[in-house]
Amino acid sequence: MNATQQPRPARLTVGVVGAGRVGPALAAALQLAGHRPVAVSGVSDASRRRAAALLPDVPLVPPAQVLALADLVLLTVPDDALPGLVEGLAATGAVRPGQLLVHTSGRYGTAVLDPARRAGALPLALHPAMTFTGTAVDVQRLAGCSFGVTAPEELRLAAEALVIEMGGEPEWIAEEARPLYHAALALGANHLVTLVAQAMELLRTAGVEHPDRMLGPLLGAALDNALRSGDAALTGPVARGDAGTVAAHVAELRKHAPGTVAGYLAMARTTADRALAHGLLKPELAEDLLGVLAESGDAAAAGGLAPGGQDPDGPASGGPASGGPASDGPASGGPGPEGPGPEDPHGSQGGDR
Length: 353
Description:
This protein has 13 helices and seven strands.
């Protein structure tokens, strides 16, 4: 589906409630398509700076005033804050009949907007499957970005047209499938950041001066191969059934970064299961490998690892030494130097999202 097949929406005034990393970028993309941002709400200093950078000269006003001024309102707040926000706006009479109300949560479809729908709003769920930095680069990255789209049937074409105008590709997601859809994105993007952060920290411990340079080509190739070939792209000691190598890995991790052991074992077991199911791991090798993983798991449970995989005498398992979730960086799951704030639904995902 392309722009020539879609009805071009009328030029709309656009408002943003919640100037996290997502809302200003989407409003800026809509501005490039000819729509007119007229109001934005934001509380923190960081949100105000983002709004000023991406939407210069657009006034900062309270949420109710955003709705009073805009034909199309982007509700870009954290998932847990969204239901209360919608209920509050509807209860105070801020919602206008015929107003397009768009949220960007991956978790929710349009049912969360029911209080506003009863007040006459037109509900849309448009979730960009991308991580955001809160800078102008996000607007460029929207080109070709998939959006999870959920909308009433009569608004489907309008929703898809708005996505295309922002440079994205609409992907229809049924209301009941939204939580599973969002879980899949979080599994792929958010957990990837944690794995990469762990790998970089371990390489530094091993003496590698520039772990990013070492991992970049390797991870890029692995991602490309996985997207092209799925499980057939599996390589490495688990897929080969090298039980001795895996045992050596676990011993070294337990010695240098005990907080990574539980994650390594969980991923190794999952990798072994998938490799075995797809004929990559020979059954005769799988037995020894799974035995090593089981013994290592038993040792972790009985050998002094505290709940959460933390060694009581070692580094805490949430910090950089143990590969805890990274602070948001410009790479694939971590936008910007600033951690997710109260107005940012995509802080370390994809988007968050």
